[in-house]
Amino acid sequence: MPKDKPEPLTQAQKEQLEAELAELEGPRRAAMVEAIATARAFGDLSENFEYHAAKNEQGLLERRITLLRDRLDRAVLVDDKPPEGGEVGVGSKVELEDEQGGKLEVEISSVGGVSPDSPVGRALMGAKAGDEVEIEAPSGAWRARILNVGR
Asked: Which among 91, 68, 87 is positioned nearest to 133, based on CA atoms?
């Protein structure tokens, strides 16, 4: 993700990322330091699987921390209220019906939902209940009708 691209988040989504970052930087980082120290005590580091596994986990943890900090630095708060006219926006919960009659509910969110930059997110942004959208997915295009837009 580009470092200069704004990250639209609702207040609740921002708080969720901040809570995850606090957990990773606090208890999880402390537990990782302890795991490395314990593994180091097992002896020769060149053949110590536990040590190498713990160092690998530490690298993954630090990478996640870096990503979260970057997202929070780029965060742009969006209004939690539904946009005027019932349009789909960040934070919207959208109920869809596909061409075969299957129903799907998605939340437009880059935190635990469908990213606004994904094929589904791009197709839904700005649409309203009753609209038909075409989703250009890597596996092929498909159409869906928006049944409901909520928060």
From this structure: 87
